[in-house]
Amino acid sequence: MTALLELLNVGKRVGTGRSRSLFEQLSLSVEPGQSIALVGESGSGKSTLLNLMAGLEPPDSGQVLLDGLDLATLGDDALARLRRTRIGFVFQAFHLLPQLTLAQNVALPLQLLAVGRQQAQAQARAMLEAVGLADRADDSVQLLSGGEAQRVAVARALVHRPALVLADEPTGNLDTDAADSVLALLRAQVRAQGAACILVTHSSRAAQSADLRYRLTPNGLLAEPQTQAQTAIASVPAAASPRVSH
Predict the structure, then answer these.
(1) How would you list the strands of the sheet with 212-217, edge to edge?
(2) How many C-alpha atoms does 145 have within 13 Å on its Cβ side?
(3) CB 33 within 8 A of CB 194
(4) Is 122 buried (19+), middle (13-18) or exposed (0-12) by CB count in 10 A?
(5) How far apart are CA 189 and CA 192, in angstroms?
(6) How many CB atoms lie within 10 A of CB 25?
(7) How far is CA 12 from the centre of its chain?
(8) What does the alpha-carbon distance between residue 211 and residue 222 come to, in Å, rounded to a whole number?
(9) Can you say whether the dihedral through the CA atoms of 188, 190, 196, 197 is positive or negative?
(10) Going from the N-terminus, what domains does the chain have, and what CATH number goes with each?
């Protein structure tokens, strides 16, 4: 199978003057349908690595290829289009707009793709049904618990059917039960859509939701032995994925 995302001998430094290396000679190949967890302590460069994958910043060495395209060769407009169409983002802090309803928040990526308002709302509501929040579609996001807010964020990340989902500490603000529920939901919906998912986390428990796990080190990625995923994380079945057209 052709790789969706490839990192080839990637290196990144931070700081000016006496800069330090976050990592070097880092290589990774991600195929459609794969779920990969990148584990590391705070400051190890996990979020920076996600930024490289999204083309938000360039590597200092090596190449990042998405759909076979070297992201460093693309201009700002092309990178923005690629992110809007091919990538979905889930963040620790949710980043929902408090003045909008759940459905309006989920519809935002579709509006950026110039999908008509009625169609965008229909697809947003279908996605909210997939994450178990259909009856809350017209509620304000300010009424949500942390776990519910992250479910909305997952729905927003997946509503435009991205090929690649990048999740940056998505359970960092949640208690254990809510975190397990969100991880199971994310895994199920990513699989239902045939997307690839990169999860960065400092939590070994969260990493168990992925198919493969790697630890980020200054010398690249170190594969970690895969143990049986915890039942609480893996027990939620994949819901039917809504059909989204462009």
Answers:
(1) 87-91, 164-168, 196-201, 35-39, 212-217, 220-223
(2) 11
(3) yes
(4) middle
(5) 5
(6) 14
(7) 21
(8) 15
(9) negative
(10) 32-57+76-234 (3.40.50.300)
Bridge partners (DSSP) listed for residue 223: 214
Could you read off the pLDDT of 29-50 as tens digits, one per residue?
999 999 999 998 888 899 999 9
Residue whose structure tokens are 């693309």: 74
Contact assessment for residue 157 and residue 128, using Cβ atoms and an 8 Å cutoff? no
Helix (H, G, I), strand (E, B) or coil at 16: coil
Contact 158, 197 (CB under 8 A): no
Q: Which residue matches tokens 């979905």?
A: 88
The pLDDT tens digits for 160-200 are 999 999 999 999 889 999 999 999 999 999 999 999 999 99
Max alpha carbon distance in the chain (Å)?
54
SS3 content of the chain, % helix, strand, coil (to 5): 35, 25, 35
Q: What pTM does this model have?
A: 0.88
